[in-house]
Amino acid sequence: MTFPDLVPDLRASMPALRGRLVANQPLAELTWFRVGGPAQVLFIPEDEEDLAYFLARLPRDIPVTTIGLGSNLIVRDGGVPGVVIRLGRGFGEIAVESGSRIRAGAAVPDVKVARAAQDASIAGLAFLRGIPGAVGGALRMNGGAYGGETRDVLVAARGVDRTGAVHTFAAADMHYAYRHCGAPEDIVFTSATFQGAPGDAAAIGAEMDKVTESREATQPIKSRTGGSTFKNPSDRKAWQLIDAAGCRGLTVGGAQVSRMHCNFLINLGGASAADIEMLGEAVRRRVKDDSGVDLEWEIKRIGVAQG
Ligand SMILES: Cc1cc2nc3c(=O)[nH]c(=O)nc-3n(C[C@H](O)[C@H](O)[C@H](O)COP(=O)(O)OP(=O)(O)OC[C@H]3O[C@@H](n4cnc5c(N)ncnc54)[C@H](O)[C@@H]3O)c2cc1C
Fold first, then answer.
1. Which of 35, 93, 185, 230 is the most buried (most CB within 10 A)?
2. Where are the alpha helices (H) located in the chain, listed in sequence order?
3. CA 134-137-138 angle, 5° bins
4. Could you confirm whether 228 is annotated as catalytic?
5. pLDDT over threshold 80, residue 285
6. What is the percent of the chain where pLDDT is above 70?
7. Residue of 35, 71, 76, 85 to test ligand 1 pocket, by largest number of atoms within 8 Å of CB
């Protein structure tokens, strides 16, 4: 599958652009599931100013999709039309600020935020150790684990909208709910400031070790997966509903419901995105038949099916 090459026209209309534009860039290698087709154009902006310049000049009819570390994504087999934005080194800065705060670029892996907080004896951010995404993904997903959630620790986030305007969002402006962010869909987050509290580095380290041990014991973290597939309904655990519906180990093509944690789907090696998505839909149907509950996808699915 290849898309028409938009890069020469984009370059010509944006002479001062500094970031990288790549036509038909395979995306599978940029996701945990390792499936899916290419981006019509992958854009890696140099910094926030470059991102704003690009978005301000991008024709309005070209769709834009942002990805982070691809740990919560299924890229469909036909690829993603339009521009896929992935933030790189220019968004990788991390700084400890006064008042037990950490400011981090949106491309900084969550684990690095947790480690920087530990080094600075800042408590309250250790839960980020358990989320294998980057700051931008945590902001958009309200990522959380082990009793902590992004909304609990966010002071403010910065981002650029589809017209290239830069905005700052206070935590309340993010309209957070469980695994949901109500900030406008077109915002590409560029950085965030997190609030912790004075703590003890050794105790924070011990907490992070506990998170690591617990994840290794309960999640297939060495597999090609997308983490929790479905949101937990308000009064139940998704994995229990999936288990009760007899889906543990269920297989479609090269995709399987993890035997270790049955809210995780895994690519056994040769899965297509369609296998994984069909498996997820099969699980939803079985759970609906068994318990009457409509499971809602937590994993984001982007792009188009193979034509
Ligand atoms: C083994 C494993 C364990 C996991 N455990 C947890 C867990 O305990 N808790 C939890 O919450 N999640 C968990 N996840 C899911 C995932 O890690 C989180 O959702 C994470 O926050 C996604 O971040 P990412 O950078 O990988 O984003 P991606 O998966 O690349 O994208 C996810 C969403 O965020 C958007 N996005 C990404 N970056 C930006 C940006 N800069 N601006 C705007 N939007 C953006 C994308 O458009 C997409 O909608 C797990 C995943 C795996 C594979």
1. 35
2. 7-13, 48-57, 110-119, 135-141, 150-153, 201-218, 238-244, 273-291
3. 85
4. yes
5. yes
6. 100
7. 71
